[in-house]
Amino acid sequence: MKTIRILAIETSCDETAAAVVERDPHGCPLVRSNVVFAQLKEHAAFGGVVPEIAARAHLSVLDTVILAALDEAGCGLDEIDAIAATAGPGLIGGLMVGLMTAKGLAASLSKPFLAINHLEGHALTARLTDQVDYPYLLLLVSGGHTQILEVAGLGDYRRIATTIDDALGEAFDKTAKLLSLGFPGGPAVEVAARGGDPHRFHLPHPLKGQDTLNFSFSGLKTAIRTLAQDLAPLDDKTVGDLCASFQRTVAEIVSDRARRAMTEFAENHPGLENRVLVVAGGVSANQEIRASLLEASSSQGWQFVAPPLALCGDNAAMIGWAAADRFAAGETSNPDFAPRSRWPLDGDTVPIIGSGRRGPKA
Ligand code: KG4
Ligand code: ZN
Prior knowledge:
Bound molecules: 5'-O-[(R)-(carboxyoxy)(hydroxy)phosphoryl]adenosine, zinc ion
Low-confidence stretches: none
Strand content: 15-25%
CATH topology of the largest domain: Nucleotidyltransferase, domain 5
Strand order of the largest sheet: 3-2-1-4-5
Number of strands: 10
Order of helices and strands: EEEHHEHEHEEEHHHHEHEH
CATH superfamily of the largest domain: ATPase, nucleotide binding domain
Structural class: alpha/beta
Mean pLDDT: 94
CATH architecture of the largest domain: 2-Layer Sandwich
Distance between the termini: 44 Å
Oligomer: single chain
Number of domains: 2
CATH class of the largest domain: Alpha Beta
């Protein structure tokens, strides 16, 4: 088998992205280019992603982004083996733009086309960056998802836990909105939390002590809203203390669930020598959450893998890598593959509100 070269497109939310990714015959990856255009100013005035604006913005910049990715990779379309695009889950208008572009390119060049699950892109990023072996434990924390999964192989995912209400990224975004910190909320809360007192406010730990690994964040958001109303007008110190307290609380919740999931995973895989906890998705950029997960995994003798910051948020390199793995396994998609707003990684699990679906991040 020769080296496979994929042109990948990602347009499922508010990042317009294209990348050229290679997979050599030994399965080793090479990201030749990874171009991301973040639609920040398009949505800033609305305090969150507006689906219709996102779709139109993808349409106006996607061809430029694709040309930039090819240029950065130093290759032409004739040197690409297959074209891939995110087909879901995500905002349907944006998915249509990326998917139709990929299908059109593939048809006009007589190249294979692959429809890729966005969550699989996040799930396999650790194999792209750190060649992590299967099986591993994955904490997927993004604007639309908060899940713990066992990744047993390509396309072989078992959901262990999910959120029963808000996703963690959504909780960050809503907290930022309540405190008028702007959009996108996650990085803004992290910056505001610096120097804040993480112990000034005692926020609820929803589902604490219950026999579940699931997450719940809506009570936290309500607590922040009540505090913000009671303490109004808010000065910078109070906003910093609220953000630091919120961040400490969610880091505690996430590392508590990860600890318990690691124990369960270890019991289910008694012979496995190298146990790895992987974090992925936009929220995995958060330094306090990374630090608390690192501590949780080292205390149980596990390896911890977190993507470099450029690959935490949405990007097309992760889509290209998932596509390369699938193409190497002999898979391509039909040209009539339709975009899916909901597309859970683990098709066997009972749907819970929010799982497998991505909406606007705020
Ligand atoms: O994976 P992603 O780019 O898009 C989705 O698939 O949803 O994740 C975006 C989410 C947003 O909610 C954003 O606020 C959050 O990730 N995020 C962060 C940080 N950077 C991005 N949350 C906390 N701390 C950060 N530094
Ligand atoms: Zn994502």
